[in-house]
Amino acid sequence: MSDADGRPPLARLFAIAYRQLVDDLHRRLRQRGWHDVRPAYGFVLLAARDAPVTVTGLVELLGMTKQAASKLADAMVSGGYLQRGGAGEDARVRPFELSDHGRRLLHDVEQIYAELDALWAARIGADRLEQLRADLRAAVAGPDGALPAVRPLW
Amino acid sequence: MSDADGRPPLARLFAIAYRQLVDDLHRRLRQRGWHDVRPAYGFVLLAARDAPVTVTGLVELLGMTKQAASKLADAMVSGGYLQRGGAGEDARVRPFELSDHGRRLLHDVEQIYAELDALWAARIGADRLEQLRADLRAAVAGPDGALPAVRPLW
DNA sequence: CCGCATTGGTCAATCTGATTGACTATCGCG
DNA sequence: CGCGATAGTCAATCAGATTGACCAATGCGG
């Protein structure tokens, strides 16, 4: 597989880049003693940082069915990362909020994100990295500037 | 989920970009009448374009176990996209090559890749897109310039 | 202020793509 | 020749997601 071809498909590059980041993140998390963190957790933690998340919110963030999102949240509760929050106005919504444990994980995740950013900046230059991030953001964002679900539901 | 945050994690952007491309590719393939194409097929078709692929080759390309790679190739044979090629020197390797059907699919895939490239070029500019591709390639490639597996096996 | 479609969420069964584990056959080297 | 390394397969299992059926709270039109 001599890969000297100059313009590999974007999809392949994105797939490789994504896996590399996610694998590296989880490798570093394990080194720090986090052993039961699944790939999707990072997204959820970020989303839950400032306000409780709901199942429907996760559906919109991740682009999975509500059943899958519900299970994911349950798993994070089992792991002690999330806890059910007190119901608000609407008694149908059952919000989840970060537990202390979850907040500690979030802290490490954010720290590692920064490490990985620095790693990438070292590889291609900080300026190029920010350019890349901005272009990528512009390319995938909707007209309102909002990021779509990780996997949009058609 | 008001996502006006300026610097989303790279991993999220890559995940979104990847899914967007892959989903779009398969949507367009279905429009053209291809109904049983799985996400991994594209990578395999490209790899098999110029020379037969082997199970081990797929393992290195995709970063899955050889069992999974073997099944994937079998599925593509069932779909009529690959066929077993005549064994070469080494009787252990059982190469797969593109069938005519597979070559037709590859043709459509390449055409759609070009369409999607054009779409992205329209979004952020052709120059920026090439910059992005080059930077990304540089960031993920090994020192020899070879692209790693989609999902490296640690 | 009541009826009913909509919305948020769960339970259960199933599927798919992958994994781990055990195995066979061929190769190539000392 | 003998033996470790390499290419591949078979079988069982798993994890994360899906489809389908369902319940409870909401809120809007008449």
From TrEMBL, chains A, B:
<feature type="domain" description="HTH marR-type">
    <location>
        <begin position="30"/>
        <end position="129"/>
    </location>
</feature>
<dbReference type="InterPro" id="IPR036390">
    <property type="entry name" value="WH_DNA-bd_sf"/>
</dbReference>
<dbReference type="InterPro" id="IPR000835">
    <property type="entry name" value="HTH_MarR-typ"/>
</dbReference>
<dbReference type="Pfam" id="PF12802">
    <property type="entry name" value="MarR_2"/>
</dbReference>
<dbReference type="InterPro" id="IPR036388">
    <property type="entry name" value="WH-like_DNA-bd_sf"/>
</dbReference>
<protein>
    <submittedName>
        <fullName>MarR family winged helix-turn-helix transcriptional regulator</fullName>
    </submittedName>
</protein>
